[in-house]
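Internal ticket #5521
Category: modeling
Description: The requester needs a full-assembly model to guide mutagenesis choices. All entity lines are attached below as received. Residue total reported by intake: 248.
Assigned to: D.W.
Attached entities:
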Amino acid sequence: MTRVIRRYAFSAAHVLARGDWSDERNRAVYGKCANPSGHGHNYRIELTLENAPDAGAQLDAVVRERVLDDLDGRFLNRETRGFARLVPTAENIARHIWDTLSPAVAPARLACVRLVETSNNSVEYFGSEPAP
Amino acid sequence: MLITRRLEFSASYRDRKGATHGHNWVLEVTLDGPVDAETGMVIDLKDLKDVMEREIEARFDHRSLNDDTPHFRERPPTPETFAELCFALLDAALPEGLLHRVRLSPTDDLTIEVAR
């Protein structure tokens, strides 16, 4: 099995808080990430693809159009449809990227979305497959 | 979903030949669990950070693994045995089955991985 790993980056602001919860509950669950003013990260995306012999320019265009143009430079909660209601945790952003790209990269198969939020934390999502 | 948190700390150890080594160790702790539908998180990263600080940093940071901890009286400290110890300490402190793997790097050029 040959896999291609391609890396992208975007910067975005977010708040971790649910609109249907009180400020107190959001603070209790999400801590300082619940600050309503928002804070930002320089996110890195690592996509792992299988059956992608010629993934270069075509993949870049799909990722640019469907993910980076949507998320880069935005306040995720206020300026994207994907996170108008969904809390933009790293887990939810990784899953959003998976759900957006997975149908769009055929005939390649998306095997993993890794989202690096800071130098100290990251998540990896494998769709319905168990983590290897 | 895998979630990984990184911790850096400094510790020394004496090998079997009596030479003392010191490193800035980098420990990457990876959990595997479902995303909670209500919070959108596998675990509160603050909780994971607290466990890593209590189980690893508080025990080992700026210590000698041989002289300042009770863990290496039966077997010598090596990157491998230290990584296995980190896995065991974290596995016992975290909710059952959540720990997926640890990666422990004494230097940029060497990483030990312990998985379930």
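Resolution: model delivered.
Comment from assignee: The helical segments of chain B are 45-60, 79-93.
Ticket closed.
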